[in-house]
Design brief:
alpha/beta; six-stranded parallel beta sheet; 9 strands
């Protein structure tokens, strides 16, 4: 099931996606006594994370939430560009999340090794069960990349359910990322997309009749059995025909 939700303002968007996250979290905790939640990086979710840690801090039993990262930049943990640091400052520390409930990517390792070890850590957490997260939160770049699935990169051809390393030529750096097949096993996937700069990419990803996943990698996100919801503002949706 795929839903496209369009909002007049970013405030409305953030409020709705926060309620969506809380609802999924409550359901997961009621059913399995834990909520496996994959965070997205970059600047877009900072305000959302802050809201979850303040306005919604009493809306969920955060002690039963396990946090993961859909991708990570190949920088050390104290670097301002490390996704884990942004999350730590905006949501994890404010909510006093226990360290054993946070799965950071170890970027002191070589990218290939970091990816292998992150996959091992996730597999150990799931104790042999299917690697199906309750919710994976994703952003999308103006080039239609999501996580670290960038146009024209080798990871787009990885059909394994795993974490992989990838060299992003236009950024001249390595990244560590969930593969599309791992993302697609999630019970729920949500895209957070706002701003006019994303409008052209969103139009291609949503409306192109033919799939051009090498150019628009977000087209690869098609959950096997879960739900996919796009939370977008009117600026990002401004070029959509319907």
């Amino acid at each position: 099931m795929e839903n496209l939700l369009i909002y007049k303002s970013k405030d409305e968007l953030f409020k709705d996606i926060a309620n969506y996250i809380i609802a999924i979290g409550k359901k997961a905790i009621a059913e399995n006594d834990c909520f496996n939640f994959v965070l997205t990086g970059g600047n877009s979710p900072k305000e959302l994370y802050h809201n979850l840690a303040t306005t919604y801090k009493d809306s969920l039993d955060w002690n039963k939430v396990f946090f993961f990262f859909g991708d990570e930049r190949n920088v050390l943990a104290e670097d301002a560009n490390y996704n884990g640091l942004m999350a730590k400052e905006s949501i994890l520390s404010p909510l006093n999340i226990a360290s054993d409930h946070i799965f950071y990517v170890d970027t002191t390792l070589a990218p290939e090794k970091a990816a292998i070890e992150y996959h091992k850590a996730i597999s150990a957490h799931f104790k042999g069960a299917d690697l199906s997260f309750d919710l994976i939160l994703l952003g999308m770049g103006d080039d239609a990349h999501t996580a670290s699935l960038f146009p024209g990169t080798s990871i787009l051809e990885n059909h394994n359910v795993e974490v992989d390393s990838v060299f992003v030529e236009k950024l001249a750096t390595h990244r560590i990322s969930f593969t599309a097949p791992l993302i697609n096993k999630a019970k729920n996937i949500a895209f957070l997309v706002f701003g006019k700069g994303k409008a052209e990419a969103l139009k291609h990803v949503i409306e192109d009749e033919e799939q051009h996943t090498a150019l628009y990698p977000s087209q690869l996100i098609k959950p096997i059995a879960g739900g996919l919801t796009w939370f977008v503002d009117e600026d990002a949706a401004s070029l959509l025909d319907n």
